[in-house]
Design goal:
The mean pLDDT is 88. The radius of gyration is 19 Å and the shape is flat. The N and C termini lie far apart (39 Å). It has one domain. The protein has two helices and no strands. By secondary structure, the protein is mainly alpha-helical.
Length: 73
């Protein structure tokens, strides 16, 4: 399989684990997405929250593409 670099036989053996794992990840994304959407809807300034989140993600993307290593403590 090209996605995970597993051989076909190994992917067949691990299929139940892969399905359960992907289902768990999808469930968490839906759960946190609903919480985030509800939080944005209840806020008095939802555009400000969305703009801040987009700016934060854009900043992280630009720093990653530039290869900046942030210091670790």
């Amino acid at each position: 399989m090209w996605l995970t670099d597993l051989s076909f036989q190994r992917a067949i053996l691990l299929a139940p684990v892969l399905v359960i794992g992907m289902g768990a990840v999808a469930g968490l994304l839906v759960f946190w997405g609903r919480i985030g959407w509800d939080s944005v809807r209840r806020n008095r300034h939802p555009r400000l929250i969305v703009a801040g989140a987009v700016a934060f993600i854009a900043l992280l993307t630009v720093l990653t593409l530039l290869g900046v290593n942030l210091p670790h403590e």
